[in-house]
Amino acid sequence: MADFQIGSVFVHVNDANKAARWYANLLGIPEPQPTTGPVQFLETVDGRGLVIDDNRNNDPAIRPVFMLETKNVQSAYVRVTSQGGKIVREPEEDEAVAFFNFQDPDGNIVMVCEQR
């Protein structure tokens, strides 16, 4: 059985670097280094995070609202599908992460992510 915990919240933006600076100042945390990628991650003092995403690599219909963290993405996939979650982005993985996106019964998009 997959163990889940609530991870990060997604903030969908037009400019990830600009938004990351704004949120860092709002939260009183250090500003992240600028990136050329689509995502900036801000860790809050409680260990949760904001995933600031400009969505340049995402289908417009697949924009997660939050992330569930797991230690086993394959087990999580089985659990989500066995409960009727509709997979909207099949599992992808590399040396740093493995993830997939699903739609809950009300249409919310959720990402499941395993940090490696």
- Name of the top-level CATH class: Alpha Beta
Oligomer: single chain
Strand order of the largest sheet: 2-3-1-4-7-6-5
| Topology order in helix (H) and strand (E) letters | EHEEEHEEE
The rounded Rg comes to 14 Å
Low-confidence stretches: none
Structural class: alpha/beta
Tell me the count of domains: 1
Look up the CATH topology: 2,3-Dihydroxybiphenyl 1,2-Dioxygenase, domain 1
The number of strands is 7
Instruction: Tell me the fraction of residues in β-strands, as a range.
Output: 35-45%
Average pLDDT works out at: 92
Q: What is the makeup of the main sheet?
A: 7 strands, mixed
Q: What is the assigned CATH homologous superfamily? A: 2,3-Dihydroxybiphenyl 1,2-Dioxygenase, domain 1
Report on this structure.
The chain contains 2 helices and 7 strands; from the N terminus they run E-H-E-E-E-H-E-E-E. Helix content is 19%, strand content 40%. The chain has a single domain, classed as 2,3-Dihydroxybiphenyl 1,2-Dioxygenase, domain 1, CATH 3.10.180. It is of the alpha/beta class and 116 residues long. The protein is globular. The chain has helices at residues 16-27, 73-82, and strands spanning 4-12, 39-43, 49-53, 66-70, 86-93, 97-103, 109-115. The chain has a 7-stranded mixed β-sheet with strand order 2-3-1-4-7-6-5.
